[in-house]
Amino acid sequence: MIDPFDGGAIRKLWATDLAAFRDHLLRLDSSTRRNRFGMAAGDEFVARYAETGFTLDTVIHGAFVDGRLVGVGELRRIAGDRGAAEAAFSVEPAHQGRGFGSRLMEAVILTARNRGIRRLFMNCLASNSQMQRLARRHGAELEFESGDVVGLVLPEDPSPVTWLREAVGDASGWTTAVMELQRRSVIGGWFGRA
Q: What is the pTM of this model?
């Protein structure tokens, strides 16, 4: 879904975005990584995690600024329960507080809704007040469980309008991704010449 705001855009990530996804996660500082993964996460763990991002039953949306991925919202189905999924978010510190988290949350909820997800869970550390505020703004009920907070959003049923919104966003997002890939190829080819 393309949504220009504050110099950025939101769209789904494709397999061609794997390196950008990995690099985004690796750029997170230790505090942001801890908030994202619920624990300290080293570079090797983060790189392995990124490799699984496009192989699992996952849809990932990205926030881009000037062609660089600076935030992601992930929707992962919960194994054994087709009606439940987990959402996870990360935004690089320099881009926090600019609305990216909220836009990513909206995209994830729309995707969940269109896939018949009835329960969308968000787990975060009790100290992660930013995530808790984001979850509350989008209607999540929060429960505190032994140092963690579990948020639950109950997406509405899909409708022709929500399917159309996602389809139009996908078409725009795919076009943007292809144009960005071509731009990188031209620049790489141009500067890579001897």
A: 0.85
